[in-house]
Write a structure and sequence with these properties.
Number of domains: 1
Oligomer: single chain
Radius of gyration: 16 Å
Number of helices: 3
Distance between the termini: 54 Å
Length: about 90
């Protein structure tokens, strides 16, 4: 029986500064008209990642990490708004 290990990116560490850079990058692409109804195309995510990583202080992020963070922050925002409504 062979053992194979799946290579995974290390767990990303996020700061408020990194979150803001991600949001700024996404907004910039929206202002350029590059957001579709269902999100960004693969090429646009690549552009967001490249711009994001230009300002990286400690570590760079992958497209997958940026997408995951976007989903996490969106979920937290929805939960926060639901709690306000209760």
């Amino acid at each position: 029986m062979s053992t194979t290990k799946t290579l995974r990116a290390h767990k990303a560490v996020w700061s408020k500064y990194a979150d803001q850079r991600l949001i700024d990058g996404m907004l910039a692409q929206c202002e350029k008209g590059k957001k579709l109804d269902n999100g960004f195309k693969k090429e646009v995510w690549q552009e967001i990642m490249e711009e994001f990583n230009k300002g990286a202080i400690k570590e760079t992020k992958t497209v997958a990490q940026l997408k995951t963070r976007t989903n996490t922050v969106s979920f937290q925002f929805v939960c926060f708004n639901i709690n306000l409504a209760i």
